[in-house]
Model the fold of this input.
Amino acid sequence: MPAALWYEVAGRGLPVVLLHAGIADSRMWDPQFASFAHEYRVVRFDARGFGRSPYAPGRFSPVDDVRELLDRLGIARAALVGASSGGAVALDVAIAYPERVWALVLVGATVRGRPWSAEVRRFQADEAEALAAGDLERAVELNLRLWVDGRRPPGTVPEALRARVAGMQRRAFDLERERAALEPAPEPVGPLWRTEPRLGEVRAPTLVVVGEADVADVHEASALLAERVAGARQAVIGGAAHLPSLERPQEFDRLVLDFLASAAPAGSDRH
Done:
């Protein structure tokens, strides 16, 4: 794993690794990094191209980055808590390396390979147009409207929360611009499978979480996960969109910590 991949560890006990969303970085887990560390050994990291992890030249695998991080930290098995695209990576880790995952929490998770709706495709086209024009502020605002505001009227979400996510998203866009100067060009290499047909292979106890105000695509993906992953539980957090861990941290923490306690391997020492 490249030294440039930033990570942080706190607490002791069973390992829990937090994987951030694509509109954020590891700072989105500030509330959980503090609270989860009272009961678990908590790891959070910035994926390449986010936060404090700039891109490195050459091809890379987000899934193997997680495995290599576990190896570096001497972690044989961890619970993975992944949000959005981080949830998609966590899901693929659970399929590729089932022996490394003792529990799985998928928060507003996407399922790699599923087609997006016309609404999200329009957003993607508008975002690409703004970035091509060098208008980062418009690109950031487009992301805030879709993912942070979600299915709520403008002005509903506190401005402090929107500003917090905007700073993380802007940092990712800045790192994406720096990526163009690297040789060989950084290129992610995903697993050689579509995730949806392999959901039945997930063996880890799984909790699927979605914000009530999240976009329809995410609700559909969450329903699919709850249906196809054996024994999966599903929970909806009211008053939140794509980042319920930031919008409703106390409710999110109770939900996830209760699930992790129930999923802990028999005979394990949580403390």
